Model the fold of this input.
Amino acid sequence: MVPFCSRDHESSETEMPRPSDPLLEMLRKVAKEKKMNTAALAKAAQIPRGRMKHILSGSEPMTVDELIVLSQVLELDPTGMAAEAEAEEPEDSDEADDSSAAPSLRAMDRREVPPFVLDPYGNHAWQIIQVGLALSVDMFLVLDTEALTGSGIPKAVMSRYSEKLPLTLDAAYHRHYKCTYLPEGMKVQLSFDALYTCILPWPAFLSIHLSPLPPDPVTPDPDPEPEPESAPKAARGHLRLV
Done:
């Protein structure tokens, strides 16, 4: 079993909390309850996916316009958002004397989530699908057409791809695909000329490509100030014999 690396390795456990942390936590919580991932939110709010990822992670500041659009997409009352965000803040504890060492909400959430575990001896295709769903990224599948017989994919579609059938799972519609694990394959709802419930056999998966979003911007360390040049040493006097 191989543990999947988490962002705990990328950030400090003593990251200082910010005033916007409760609001961001509340937005992420409501989005999760509505089963809307980053891509679905970005599409509904007409904000680029990379930008949406960065503002929800707190790595980039959110504009007032973006906050209003997100509140509309998530059906939140702007007048009540502040009160709900305040309710997300942990109560002060008499035991917590040193507030400067308190980790941020994001750091606490990351510690509470158990690490994702990769099993090299398990079902590779399903594990990769799970990673793609968790990261909310587009997935491009290449399937063995011959192995898809009886899968529920229309014959008219399969006839156009004699050997390999390409299939894209757009991250904005992950919740609509309803990907479900079955011993014989992955159950998924696909839209062609109509909506079809299909079972893609595990032997049909030839390759799965994930399209990662850009990472959070990295602020370079400031260049050290150059040391002042030392004054040139005066030439030592010497005698010249004539």
User: Anything to note?
Assistant: Strands lie at 2-3, 117-118, 138-144, 164-169, 180-182, 185-191, 195-201, 205-211. Confidence is low (pLDDT under 50) at residues 1-14, 91-113. The longest helix spans residues 21-33.
